[in-house]
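Take a record.
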Amino acid sequence: MTLIRWDPLRDLLSFQERVSRIIDSAQEECTARRQTIWTPVVDVLETPDAYIFRAELPGVGKENINIEIRGNRLTLTGRRSVESEPAIAAYHTIERIHGVFARSFSLPGRVESDKATARYVDGMLEIVVPKAADDTESTVAVISLP
C-alpha cells in the first residue's frame, strides 16, 4: 500500500478552481441571456373610456415594435439591436440589455381593437385601447405606429 501525503494547499487550490469555473459559467449564462431577451417595464392604467399602456423602450426604433390585439389580449413584441462598435473597441462592462422582448396583457373587458391607437415619443410607447359595449364582437387588430 502506497501512502499519499496530504497537502492542504493543493486541496484549497483545487476548490478555488472549481468555484471559479462555477462563477464563470454563471456569468456567461447571464450575459448570453441578457443579450437575447429582456422585459421592458409597462404601466397599465384604466380610465372610464379606455385602457392605457405605457412602455419604456429606449433605444428601440419604432420599426422594431409590433403591437397586436387578439380578443382580450394585447401583445407587445420587438427587438433592441446591438450597436456596432469599431473593431478597435473592446467592452469592459455590458449592462444594457439587447435582443428581443415580448409582453402580453389580458384586457379585463371588451375593447374596440380597431380603434386602438399608439404613439412613440422619446423612447416611451403609449397605447390607448378604447372600451367597448358588452355586445361588441372581438376582432384582431395590428396597431401601427405613425
